[in-house]
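Illustration: Cryptochrome-1.
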Amino acid sequence: MVVNTIHWFRKGLRLHDNSSLRDSIRGADTLRCIYILDPWFAGSSNVGINRWRFLLQCLEDLDASLRKLNSRLFVIRGQPTDVFPRLFKEWQITRLSYEYDSEPFGKERDAAIQKLASEAGVELMVKISHTLYNLDKIIELNGGQPPLTYKRFQALINRMDPVELPAETITCEVIKRCATPISDDHDDKYGVPSLEELGFETEGLTTAVWPGGETEALMRLERHLERKAWVANFERPRMNANSLLASPTGLSPYLRFGCLSCRLFYFKLTDLYRKVKKNRTPPLSLYGQLLWREFFYTTATNNPCFDKMDGNPVCVQIPWDRNPEALAKWAEGRTGFPWIDAIMTQLRQEGWIHHLARHAVACFLTRGDLWISWEEGMKVFEELLLDADWSVNAGSWMWLSCSSFFQQFFHCYCPVGFGRRTDPNGDYIRRYLPVLRGFPAKYIYDPCNAPEEVQKAAKCIIGVHYPKPMVNHAEASRINIERMKQIYQQLSFLCAKSPALFTLQACWQLFLPIPTTAVMTVQEVVKVRELLLKTHLHRRHRLE
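Result:
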């Protein structure tokens, strides 16, 4: 029997550690590697030009690597449920392989494809390689519920089987007996499209700071591992102005798109640590970036509402304000706080910001200053951030807004002081906000306090050339901390009345007393009670 196989690339855009592709090739007569691009999705989804450029570069790099193996990438236009029945017949397919997708949308999509494959008599090969562990086994080990604290998650993975070794890279030797039928008009029919073909305006688009693709990812990994002193002592570099800039060793976008295998990264770190530490077992903290990613994947895998408040059983139902004008100022870098505006400008221009910069702008939007829902910030990051990942993006926003996983709401990032401590001279501000370049370091973080003669000398009048601060930070943060106190007090009240219903969120403890100086109106308090009761009912439903 002739075995004609399709490998469907989605996130794992690589040839190293691709176990589903490797298994699919074994015993196959023909192989076609495909990527399905929905043209409607390209034009309507909340994904910005930098993310699309990164994806297209990943596909171009993958196609170039396949060419070296006498194969090609087939970029197919359409929706998977429409595409596969046609391809099964046209190419007489007998086998389909792809990487397991743990996210709710992906599982729903794949269930539909599995049904189509079964009806067509097509064999399926699905392997886990986008995560270190089988997430379902972590949940099973936790009594059928996802762990909702990172500490609990760490305890669970300590009881799991060791991480599986990466699969061997696909080479000519592996693929030599498996032909790829390629037509003369392949590029016209199945080539990687350009940004212009997808409807993007590219005039003025600067060179990519983060080039996409497996080739770039592996080069960055080697540079990352050259920092032997960092691995040996596992000391985070001290935060400074240079830390805020894109690093040639940065890996997060490559992990998100699967250009870099998380398992390869994991074992490279392990091997290097053991080499410099004379075979000592690495601490879990060495893998922090990978394990936080794994934690959020685990908490999200069975929760289709993980990216929203409504219906989300792990999210505190906080009555955030709706303020489109304030949201737009934040997203476009027009808050009047240079530290916040520089971060958002870098994000929009380059598609990446340092993790502490993410903390600063997320806190400012939500519980720190503007009291706007984390859902809105998550959408902006989804559009602009190269490494925005459904599970990690939503989980991080819930965490930073104290909506889940983290409850120390009294810790706020000052939009002036934090930046000043990080970069006292203001070089980062000058790089991304050239309008403020002429201000001395003394005033660059709060130029509104600069005397008129200083503003004139800097050729930037605050309120004319650069906006005044949109809020009084000291007052806004004080009010918002009081709001959070009241919300958590109400939650604690419900928890005390029915503690068994809250065992899933063990980190929600009895907190601070209701402040004597009320900040909320009576109507707001009633709304909080209603929303918290909704949270309470979500938990009861999950437990039942």
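Reading the tokens back as a structure: The mean pLDDT is 89.
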